[in-house]
Amino acid sequence: MRFLPFLLVLLISSFGYAEVVISGLTHPPKRNPEIKVLGLKDYISEQYYEIAKTNVAENGRFILRFNITKTQKIRLKYENKFCWMYVEPNGKYAIEIPEKDVAATGFKDENEMEMLFLKLDSMDINYKILGFEAWLDENLGEIFMLREARPGEFLKRISLLKKAVENDYANETDTFFVNYVKYSIGSQVDNFNYLGGLSYDEKFNFYFNIGDPLFTHDKYMEYFHLFFARYYYLASKEIRTKLFESVFAMDAEKFLKTLELDPYLKNEELRTMVALKIIRDEMNSKELPRTNLCFLLQQISSNLKNEKFRNCAKSLHQIYSELIVGQRVPNIELAKGVQLNDFSNKPIYLHFFEPSNPKCLSEISILKKLHENYGEIVEFITVYKPTSSTLNAAQTRAIEAITWKKFELAETHVIWEQLKVKTFPYYILINEKLILHSAPALSPSPNGNYQTIEKTFYDKKREKELKN
After folding, report:
1. 80 with 424: CB under 8 angstroms?
2. Per residue in 177-204, pLDDT tens?
3. Which of 112, 109, 49, 79 is nearest to 318 (CA)?
């Protein structure tokens, strides 16, 4: 009998959960790399959390098992690559992660891969979404060519497309997919203003006047961000003035109350989402002080009754209350007895490196030349995580070519979170007083404006020469 309370708690805690199984194959097979399942905490702070992880076998195979309560979008992270998929309760998936992207386009992040589904059931959410997206892309490609040249025909074709969607999915019972279709049309069709298109009122009533917001649905939130883009600047003068005053007064309650003046924001949850979006979007603006906005987030994360919005505000606060340009960098320990402060007699160029990233490898030779030319006046430091797989010859040569100071720091080391290093290669420039000069800093190779970090180093060198 003494085990009964424990058993009852176990049954209650597992109620509503269903297992998902993903079995997969990676190319090329590598020894023991890790693959993770990540989920988004929310679609405003866009912070990830770990759902599950496993190691890939030597033959490239892996199995991931985890529990969910409803359909959701997940991210699979494998080494420096990632790919997306949707999972349903009790879903079983067989996938392949190719060595090279099978559908490379200019619309993806640098490390995003399009994986392959094997034996995907026609009733699965991924099958439905992939089919719908292919159909929509094909039709919209033709229709939008008519927008300027033949506006009358454009409007007619848009109307026919929306009618076809309505008819084709009239009997669809999967609520998640129905909303995916609805808000895809919102984002890709109704978001554009065109003669004969939906008015602001019509868009709001159709897409948002539906009860509580679909806060965890990716397509709903995509359209939410488009519809309420630049809200602070497009709001009425009265609302904008009161929002401005509440930020400077650091009064979160007044900030949230002000949005009640908007006749479209009668729903409390939608109103709170808009408030959090304003704070996020204006965090780096020149009009609203970042410190004040962070204080509002702190109040919201402490005082709101709604847990999901409290957590969202907390995530945003963690992002934006951390180190910014002009602040002193923490004296981070890089190794036993070695701290960042030990190198503060010179500017520090921090280089965050990923051995399996092709761009990281390509920049080593440029970094080497920069170090030869400016190593006397700039401290070069490379930081990288331990790799879970055996390095190939090119990767080994790249690490050996780093003749300046380098530190292998575990994924749990504070440097990754404190300095917000999420992509590779990544560079940070710190001045002689450990004040953050730029993050990200310019890289050794040219950006879109043909700028590199060398100009900064050259100016430092000339400045020192003139002083001497």
Report:
1. yes
2. 999 999 999 999 898 877 778 899 999 9
3. 49
How many other C-beta atoms lie within 10 A of the C-beta of residue 261?
13
What gap in Å lies between CA 115 and CA 399, rounded to an integer? 30
Q: Tell me: domain 333-467, CATH 3.40.30.10, correct?
A: yes
End-to-end CA distance of the chain: 85
Burial degree of 29 (CB within 10 A; 0-12, 13-18, 19+): middle
**Structural domain spans, the chain:** 16-119, 128-227, 231-320, 333-467
| CA 316 – CA 332 distance, rounded (Å) | 23
Cβ neighbours, 10 Å, residue 258: 23
What separation in angstroms does the CA of 4 have from each of 52, 116, 206?
29, 46, 50
Count the Cβ atoms, other than its own, within 10 Å of residue 28.
7
Whether omega for the bond prior to residue 263 falls within 30 degrees of 0, making it cis, is no
**pLDDT tens digit string along 215-255?**
999 999 999 999 999 999 999 999 999 999 999 999 999 99
Task: Compute the distance between CA of residue 48 and CA of residue 74 in angstroms, rounded to an integer.
Answer: 10
Work out the angle at residue 77's Cα, subtended by the Cα atoms of residues 440 and 382, and round it to the nearest 5 degrees. 35
Architecture of domain 16-119: Sandwich (2.60)
Please answer whether residues 158 and 143 qualify as being in contact, where contact means their C-beta atoms are separated by less than 8 angstroms: yes
Report, in angstroms and rounded to the nearest whole number, the Rg of the chain calculated over CA atoms.
26
Strands 338-339 and 333-335: antiparallel
For residues 77 and 87, the answer to whether their CB atoms sit within 8 Å is no
Question: Does the structure show a pLDDT above 90 at 380?
Answer: yes
Distances (CA, A) of 15 to 7, 9, 151, 316: 12, 10, 54, 31
Please name every residue paired with 92 in a beta bridge, in sequence order, or none if there are none: 21
What integer pLDDT is reported at residue 228 of this predicted model?
A: 97
Per residue in 258-285, pLDDT (tens digit) is 999 999 999 999 999 999 999 999 987 8
Q: Does residue 297 register a pLDDT over 90?
A: yes
What's at 93, amino acid-wise?
Y
How many residues can be counted in the chain? Answer: 468
